[in-house]
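Aim 2, interim progress. The first record below pairs a target sequence with its C-alpha cells.
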Amino acid sequence: MSAFASPQPQSQFTPAPAMAGSALAPPASQAMFMSMGNFRYAPSPLQAGQSTAEPIQRVVEKRGSGRWYSSYDPYTEFATKAEATAYDKELRDAGYEKLRARTPTLYTYTHLKPHQQLTHTKQGPHTVAHKVILQSLVQADTKPQIKKLFTSQVPKPKDLESIMEEEEPDSGFNATLQPRIDRYMQDYQDVYDTAKSELAKKKPDLVVAKHSLNQLMNMHPYATSSWKSTSDASRGKLAGKGENKQDATFDMLVDKPSKPFNDKTGFQDFLDKREDMFDDLE
C-alpha cells in the first residue's frame, strides 16, 4: 500500500466557515493529523514536535475571483484577507495540515514509478477543467450537499474496477504501467473508505470530507487523458482549460482526449455528470 492516506484532523469537530473569526471548538482528541499522502505540504512545526515558540508562517492566498482562502482549507473562501487569516490561524491551532486544491490524478500515478513521491504538479491534461470540481466543493457547505457530490460524482471501488477493465488493452497493461495502476487502485480504495466513513458521522469534519472528495473526483479515470502511456502529454493538451474565462460555458471547459477512451458511453456519462455539477454552480 502506498502512503497516499487521507486526512484525519486532530479534532472531530466540524469547522464552521461561516463563523470565521470565532474560536473553533478545542480538539476532541490529540490523534496526529495523518499524512495527506506524499504530495502534501510538510507538517507544521507544532505537528513535527518543534517548539511553538518558533515563528509560524501562516499563509492565505487570493484567487482570480478576488476571494481569499486559507492554506489549511482551500475549499472555504472569504471576502477579505483578514477573515481568511483568522480562519487560517484557527485551523492551524487545531492541528490541521496545509492542503493543496490540486491533487494527484491517474495521470500522476502512471507517470511516476510506484516508489516515487506523489506530486500535485504532474496532473496531466484534464478532460474537464479542475475549476468545476473546486467551485463545487467551495459551494458545498453542508453534509447533504457534500453527500450529493459523493454519490453522483465518485465511482464505488467495484465500479472503478469495471471502468479500468474497460479501458485496459486486450493485451493488458504492460509491466511498467501495471504496478503503477495497482498503487492507484489501492490508494483510491483508501481515500474512498475515508470519505465514506467521514460522511457516515452525524457531524463530519467538512475539511476532511471535501478534501477526500477532491482527491476522488480528480482520480476518476475519465478526469484526465493520456494516462495509458508513460510519455508526457503534449504542451497543447496540458494547457489550461479556460479556468480564467469569465462566464465560461461547460463546453468551453471540456477537452476531450486525442485518442478516445474505449468506453465512449462511459466517458459521455462522466461528462454528463460533470455538466450536472457545473449546472448546479451558482
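The second target in this work package is listed in the same format:
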Amino acid sequence: MKWTTILYHVIQLLAVCAGIYNYKRLVKPTKVLFWLMVYTFISELVALYIRFNFGNNVYIYHLYNPIQYSLVTYAFYLELRQYRFMLYSIFLFWIFAIVNGIYWEPFLTMFCANLSMTKSILTTLWIFLYFYELLKNVNEHKFLEYPLVWISIGLLIFNANLVGLGLFNLLNQYDPITLALSNVRSFTNYVLYSSFVGAFFCHQNLVYK
C-alpha cells in the first residue's frame, strides 16, 4: 500500500475522531458534515478493500457522489435557507446520477467523472453564495470561527482539480499527465479532509442564528 493512501485514510480517521470529540458542541450544518465524514471514511475503506480483492471499485463512487452532494448541499442550505433551489438541485442530481450511470458512464465499468465535475461546479456556487451572505453580515467574529468557512476553503481547493476529474476516463493510467493529476488529486484530498478537522474544532458560529 502506498504511503499516500495510508496518509489519506489517516487524515480521514483524524477528522472522524475530531468530530466525535466535539460532536455535542457542533451546530447543525457541522453535524451534517460530520456524518458525511463518517460515511466517507467507511466508503473509502470499502473501496480500498474491493480494489485490492476484486480490482474494479468504480461503482462505489457512483453511489458516493450523489450522497456527498446531498449532504454538502443540505449543510450549506441550513445557512442559506433563502435559496430553496439548492434543495431542488439534490433531487435533480440524483436523477442525473442514475441517467449518467445507465447511459454515459456505466456503473460497473467507468468512473463517474461527469458526476464529479457537476458536483464540483454546483458546490463551488454554494460556496460563493455562502461567502456573499457572510460578507453581508459581517460581525465581531473572525473569519475562521465559522465552520463552513473551513469546509469552503477545503472544497474550493479540491474543486480546483476539476480538470483532472474530467479527464479521468480519457487518460492512460501510465501517462505522465495521469501521474501528475493523481498527485494533485491526492494533495487536494488531504486539504479537503484536513479542513473538516478545522471545522470541528473551530468556534461554531453561524451566519444566521
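The mean pLDDT is 91. This observation will shape the mutagenesis plan for the next reporting period.
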